[in-house]
Amino acid sequence: MTCEQETTELAAYAMAALDPGEAARVGRHVRACPGCAGEVDEIRAALAAVRLLPDEELVGDWSGKLAELREAAVRAALAEDPPVPRPC
Q1: What are the structural domains, with CATH classification, of the chain?
Q2: What global pTM score does this model have?
Q3: 50 vs 17: CA distance, rounded Å
Q4: What whole-number distance in Å separates Cα of residue 67 and Cα of residue 30?
C-alpha cells in the first residue's frame, strides 16, 4: 500500500465498507503505519461526530445551500497543497 494514494481506501476501511480480504490487507497496513492509523482515527472521529448530529441537520432541503457549498469546496480544493506522503 502506498500511503499517499490510499485515503479513499482508508475511509472505506474506517467505515467497514471493504470486503473481508481487502479489510484484512488494509488492517495489516494500518497496524504497521502510524500515519495511516492516525488518519483512520480521524475519519472515525469525524463519522462519530456526524452520527451525533440531529436528523434535521442531515436531512432536509439543501437546495439553497448547494451553490455555497460547491463554491467552498472548490476554493478549499484550489487552496490545498499537493498531498504529502505520510510516513510508514
Answers
A1: 3-79 (1.10.10)
A2: 0.61
A3: 17
A4: 37
